[in-house]
Amino acid sequence: MNDHPGRIAVLTVGDELLAGEVADSNLGTIGKALSAMGMSVWEHATVRDDVQAISTAIKDFLETNDAVLITGGLGPTSDDVTREAVADATGKRLESRKALETMIRGFFESMDREMPEENLKQALIPCGARAIPPAGGTAPGFIVEYGGKLIAALPGVPREMERMLRSDVKGELGSRFSSGEFTVTLRVNTFGAGESDVAQELHDLIGGCAVRYGFLALNGPIVVKLTATAGSREEAERLAADEREKVVGRLGPLVYGFGDETMEEVMGRLLLERGLSIAVAESLTAGMVCSRIANVPGSSDYFRGGVVTYSRESKEEVLGLPKELLREGAVNQGVARAMAESVRRMFSADLGVATTGLAGPGRDGEKKTVGTLCLALADGKDTGSWERMLPGDRELVRSIATMAAMNVIRLYVLHGDQVVAD
Amino acid sequence: MNDHPGRIAVLTVGDELLAGEVADSNLGTIGKALSAMGMSVWEHATVRDDVQAISTAIKDFLETNDAVLITGGLGPTSDDVTREAVADATGKRLESRKALETMIRGFFESMDREMPEENLKQALIPCGARAIPPAGGTAPGFIVEYGGKLIAALPGVPREMERMLRSDVKGELGSRFSSGEFTVTLRVNTFGAGESDVAQELHDLIGGCAVRYGFLALNGPIVVKLTATAGSREEAERLAADEREKVVGRLGPLVYGFGDETMEEVMGRLLLERGLSIAVAESLTAGMVCSRIANVPGSSDYFRGGVVTYSRESKEEVLGLPKELLREGAVNQGVARAMAESVRRMFSADLGVATTGLAGPGRDGEKKTVGTLCLALADGKDTGSWERMLPGDRELVRSIATMAAMNVIRLYVLHGDQVVAD
After folding, report:
1. pTM score over 0.80
2. Which domains does chain A have, with CATH numbers?
3. In degrees rounded to 5, what are phi and psi of residue B210?
4. What pLDDT digit, counting tens, does each position of B28-77 carry?
5. Theoretical Cys-Cys bridge with B314: which of A281, A305, B104, B281, CB 3.0 to 4.6 Å?
6. CB of B71 within 8 A of CB of B17?
7. What SS3 state is found at B345?
8. How many angstroms separate the CA of residue A302 from the nearest CA in chain B?
């Protein structure tokens, strides 16, 4: 056991990543796996398929980190040079391992194919390194110790990388570095206020030394991240959970969920608990609300369906809205209310929700400003409506409007099955 | 013009990236944009939200690179410290720019909200820097020269980052560093066959030395990437375009578009050209088809709207399907045909298209296998239907089904306004 929280660096190798041809997912996989074990990735770099570039990065990282995890460059072709780079950085010779050679030959034999000569170089690893057998492909990985520090080289193929991380690397890192400090991050998901408003509301909580605050703006929702570090996982969890309680107390109904929970899941669970069904009439969002609600497996228990009345004619013909109502345009709270009431009846649902608005770029002959959202909710007794100005382009406006439509249903249930509008 | 191909480094800032909570897409966007301009990203690093870490990385990169592009850390909260880090690395003071402050205030005013005090710090940029106005949010970017080299700081939000890259950064970099080799990548977008089938079809074209082939599987579509490198942009474009012609000749109607063209754009353009309108009835896809069609600005010219009949009752009540038809379940070609015909009439559209099927994980009492898609298209004279087995999980099944629904409309127009079903 070590008494400091191992600093681990990740080095991603590949020209194709720098050229934007392939997106790297290995950093995320490693980051998540280490966080869960009370370790964290301290820094990360992406370098070219070049022995000197990789070797220099390894040496730089070893100066300030306890371990370097390398992904990529272990394939059979000439641009795969991670083996040589580790040898160069550590001054160790490469040696061929018979056992690895046999496994690589076996891979080809199992597919009745002859092994190309190139693949032989995959059996080379630095002297003294511990080999990790291929995990699905032909690339072995390896772990080598150098000056009391650790270098692990893993294939770039995400599936193979992940298997080796789980089977060999996590254990090795855990036994050396996991101790001392455990870090836990909890997420509080909010909707209905901007990033700076949420931060303002928590102003005096931020900066306390036990828990670190972070904010993430995700096309509408603002996520508050609470990161606690402590001597045990339990203690870190308790610190973060206590802080979360304070945050929830401050933000109240702005909070719709925690962790990976989505608005559609939370809304769905509330509807299911109350035994309420729902139908949706969409103009501005044109199917996005329905689609998001139906994302949740089992949503057919509360989701009846909906209509997308994108044209003015369809608002009259399909939803039966009176011509006079539409004379002043289709973007106003009156139209939204009539849509919500009509779709509720049409689908024999308990609740009807409706969106209309202007996503832009054009105004389609409407008088309202681009970014206007009109929302309505009808429950058969009452109908409430809201009007908001949303920021951003067409896509963002529609995406925030979709969240807002699901959010009014959540708030309806929170208010004891009551429509509480502006 | 410079006689060497500018070395450009990308620095990505954010704890959430190292912890694996958010995947970075900015490196890819920048890599692609620079490749297209005859430049390339030479190295990349991800660092914590920490002034010293960011400042050190900037200084390291400036030693061996001509420019550093930073993404992230320009928000209003306390963990956004890129401004301070650039000031630290360059020894420049931060100054508040009145014009930026006005824009940030304007952002909040346009939404009738008061500006939180925190946002004021977003108007701070290093002395002598060129400001880039906010691109959709409240975060300005900036470009600063230092020792003959360039530092650009851009927001981490991908959409805002991309806009500033296009509007200000590419021009600045291009005028200084672009020369030598130009690389052009053209994309041919196909739908309806698997990756290995498409590759097989092009088998003898692949491996020619002038143009490099790549394949990208994108939740249904298979994209063929053709990359050519030459001494001038024109020559590289000609090489890639010649190859593209060969590919289109081979793949025929599998090809629905090029470059960034989406299926909904292509389908929309064809409908507009033929003066046809469309309505959609969705069960399996539950709003995704409508939502994708309405993604296209101006789609109201041909898109009438649709219904999401997620429950069996709504198929009867809203679409008027006879009870007997639904006795054998809701997933069959007969139901899809009746849905397409009914929605066409309901919305007075020229064409009606319908999806029904099983996305899983459960079978909802249906007899069919999870992954089954039934599609139908009605034009008032004929109705055609298709049945397919789709691979993947709930999300992938719905996403491919959505593409397939738009694709039958595209093929209808290609076949001279004729329903050509299985």
Report:
1. no
2. 7-177 (3.40.980.10), 182-258 (3.30.70.2860), 271-414 (3.90.950.20)
3. -75, -35
4. 999 988 887 778 899 999 999 999 999 999 999 999 999 999 999 999 99
5. A305
6. no
7. helix
8. 9
